[in-house]
Design goal:
By secondary structure, the chain is an alpha/beta fold. Helix content is about 40%, strand content about 20%. A six-stranded mixed β-sheet has the order 3-2-1-4-6-5, sandwiched between helices. The longest helix has 15 residues, at about 135-150. The chain is globular, with a radius of gyration of 16 Å. It starts with a helix and ends with a strand.
Length: about 160
């Protein structure tokens, strides 16, 4: 029983990137600053023509470069390269709060019947002054989610591979 309690699943954070040199460093730093470990950070450069690769190379991440095929192909490559028990997709122009991974792992381990968890970015947006009313953002996120089944710009997606 003790051995099972000590098991902490590896989380693979997959960051697809296309021409995002201005923001990708912050995304990586937020992934590195997680209160939870173990995590692996996988960045897939989708054929960027700016200096994204040079920025990414400054960090201890696993970098894979592909010809420009779009964000879905980049995410799929990240999935193929991942070793984690859980996947977290992070857009290269977004950031994670320091406890985001810990919260996601807790939800998915406490509820083994759940396959996908979504984290609302309301608190981060509130901190940035983008929204002052977290409830307003949550309602907007839910409304968008009903139409598109998971807006990447508003939520961070978790999956069991």
């Amino acid at each position: 029983m003790l051995k099972q309690e000590l098991h902490k699943p590896l989380v693979s954070i997959v960051i697809p990137c296309y021409n995002c040199e201005r923001f990708v460093g912050e995304a990586i730093e937020s992934a590195m600053a997680q209160s939870y470990s173990p995590v692996e950070i996988i960045v897939v450069d989708d054929g960027s023509i700016d200096n994204s690769r040079e920025v990414i190379a400054r960090y201890p991440v696993r970098l894979f470069c592909i010809d420009h095929q779009g964000v879905s192909a980049a995410r799929n490559r990240g999935i193929d390269e991942s070793a984690g028990e859980f996947l977290l997709f992070l857009d290269s122009d977004d950031r994670l709060l320091p406890n985001a991974v810990a919260c996601g792992v807790k939800i998915l381990t406490d509820h083994p019947d759940v396959a996908i968890a979504l984290n609302n970015l309301a608190e981060l947006y509130r901190q940035q002054g983008r929204y002052t009313d977290a409830e307003q953002l949550l309602q907007r996120t839910l409304a968008i989610g009903e139409k598109s089944l998971g807006p990447a710009s508003r939520v961070t997606s978790w999956l069991r591979p």
